[in-house]
Amino acid sequence: MWRQFGLLCALLGATASADSNNDWHMTPVKIIQARVQGDPPVWHPEVNLWLSKYGDTTEAAYVNNLDTVNMASVEGALMYVQAEGINVNEQSVKCQRKNNMQYVVFYEMTIVQPTYSIKYYENHTPPEYGDFVAMDGAKCTNAGADLPKSCKVYYGLDGTMDIGPNVGCNPQGSDPRAPYPDNYWCSFPNSCAQKYRAEKTAECRAQYNGGLCPMGVADMSNDISIHYLKQQNLYLKIISIVLETCVVPTTPLMILDRLVMPSCYPAFGCYGIIIQWILAL
């Protein structure tokens, strides 16, 4: 079932188009993405959108919702929850979910990539996407002591080529703790992606523009930078990540009327590979 549903999240290849002046640019395409997060989206009836719980204004909640974030295909989100959410070696507090993950939020989005980005990554897999960049706190995550080159090229920082902010997606290998083949992790840079959210000034955001379209405006005409528009979403609540590392079972368990077979991996401990879901919206 999940595999069939996951096919909806196949990364759509974009097509090229040309206007009367033969100016090549990417045709807008719709994609389905999933994001694992600790808070549910909040309905804002004044704009008919599900937005972030963070922000004093509707505009701030809209920006905070997708301000330089990582997402994934459905399979990629499930792999992250199952592999890293229950990996006891990665937990600062044992038997707690990583980053207090509670929800998987699904986004329907429209994207257009910068023309220079498509050329720069012409041999990339999947086609027409840039390189995946890890992001945390509304900022590109450092690779060691410095930003990764794939982040610097958003703006041409430190003498790199300026190709514009682009949606990056890379295939992730199947993990023995969570076997979801053909899954992808993706990155969506917004403005001033080289700085944390608290450090972003209006001047920085204006100088280093990002990809999120203004709320209610789907302007895809400028191919200098990537544009992405969140159109609608739904979310699922993670009911149970079964942590038998706390109480290691020797026999199958019945949890919410489902049979859980205990599995063991020496590096990670023993746990039942199952995630329970309920439709929250």
Structure description:
The chain is α+β, with helices and mostly antiparallel strands. It has one domain. It is built from six helices and 17 strands. The strands form seven sheets. A four-stranded antiparallel beta sheet has the order 3-7-12-17. Strands 6-11-10 form a three-stranded antiparallel beta sheet. A two-stranded antiparallel ribbon has the order 1-2.
Short description, anyone?
Keywords: Signal. With 281 residues, the protein is of the alpha+beta class.
Strand portion, in percent?
25-35%
Note the run of SSEs as H and E.
Answer: HEEEEEHEHEHEEHEEHEEEEEE
End-to-end C-alpha gap? 19 Å
* Radius of gyration over C-alpha positions, nearest whole angstrom: 20 Å
How many helices in DSSP terms?
A: 6
Low-confidence stretches: 1-21, 242-281
* Largest beta sheet: strand ordering: 3-7-12-17
Average of per-residue pLDDT values: 75
Count of DSSP strands: 17
Could you say how many structural domains there are in total?
1
Signal peptide: 1-20
Keywords: Signal
Topology:
Elements: H1 2-6, E1 16-18, E2 24-26, E3 29-37, E4 42-44, E5 49-51, H2 58-65, E6 69-72, H3 74-84, E7 103-112, H4 115-120, E8 135-136, E9 139-140, H5 149-152, E10 168-172, E11 183-188, H6 202-207, E12 227-241, E13 253-255, E14 258-260, E15 262-265, E16 269-272, E17 275-279
Antiparallel strand pairs: 1-2, 3-7, 4-5, 6-11, 7-12, 8-9, 10-11, 12-17, 13-14, 15-16
